[in-house]
Amino acid sequence: MHIYRSNHPDDVAKLDTEALRERFLIDNVFKSSAINVFYVQDDRMIVGGAAPVDTPLHFNDASIEVQDGTISRREFGVINLGGPGTIQFGTTRFDMKQRDGLYIGAGQNDITFESTDPKDPARYYIVSTPAHQVHNPTHIPFENTRRIDLGDASKANVRTIHQYVHPEICNSAQLLMGMTLLADGSNWNTMPCHTHDRRMEVYFYFDMPTDERIFHFMGEPHETRHLVVAPEQCVIAPSWSIHCGVGTASYGFIWSMAGENQVFEDMDHIATTNLK
């Protein structure tokens, strides 16, 4: 399991493109017939994908080469981006349609991911954080997400936020997770940009043609940098970094946050005129 270390902003300001990508870009999130996970030291988040085809895949301590019940002390948020499938842990089983979400509380030692049809396999995007409390599992169909419509066509940022793991939907120890979908003709997300000093975030970009790209902006407001991101890649956003992006076509992204609070509006907005 690849580990992404924490980074000081003064050091990040000196990095070239290759080093920025090595430290903040997670590529190859999905691997067919495999569970593929990455460890982010910022708030100890695990990010990855499970892509079962013919046989079920088991997520447990052995699957990520750790010891001492790491899985059982974590909570999970999962969104299915592929065909229909099922997720099972213990005797509990959930049917997962495309874009359905699932919250799994701490205490599970083995989580099984399965596809219903190998010709149309499920693709489960997974985020996990340490959990100091145990909460009940919650199935979150796409149509039951909390929907928030935002943006202005004149600023090319019309978008819809779908909140999955959020206090308005289900309880969690610290994880927040949701999906933002941009309208056709809109390209900007989360602009004006912001930071939230008490929470880190990971963006997973998807739902766009393979030859299109996202220009994801990061860094301190006075010392910005950017990453060119392909579909189904992730960007790590430390708590001190801005995080916003613009695409060469409309797209979607899944955002996941962890930290010391769950106040979704707890952010420090940065005026566009103050960016450098």
Give your account of this protein's structure.
The protein is mostly beta strands and 276 residues long. It has helices at 9-12, 17-24, and strands at residues 2-4, 25-26, 35-40, 45-50, 57-60, 74-80, 85-89, 92-96, 101-104, 110-115, 124-130, 138-140, 146-150, 159-165, 176-182, 188-189, 194-195, 199-206, 214-220, 223-229, 233-237, 244-247, 252-259, 268-269. The protein has a single domain, classed as Sandwich (Jelly Rolls). The protein is 4% helix and 44% strand. The protein has a 7-stranded mixed sheet with strand order 1-3-4-11-6-9-12, with no helix packed on it. The relative contact order is 0.17. The mean pLDDT is 93.
Task: Give a short overview.
The protein is mostly beta strands and about 280 residues long. It contains 2 helices and 24 strands. The radius of gyration is 18 Å and the shape is globular.
CATH superfamily: Jelly Rolls
Count of DSSP-assigned helices: 2
How much of the sequence lies in strands comes to: 35-45%
Structural class: mainly beta
CATH topology name, in short, is Jelly Rolls
CATH class category: Mainly Beta
Order of helices and strands: EHHEEEEEEEEEEEEEEEEEEEEEEE
Major sheet: size, sense and barrel closure? 7 strands, mixed
Widest beta sheet: strand line-up: 1-3-4-11-6-9-12
Mean pLDDT: 93
Q: What best-fitting shape do the alpha-carbon axes yield? A: globular
Q: What's the end-to-end separation, in Å? A: 35 Å
Number of strands: 24
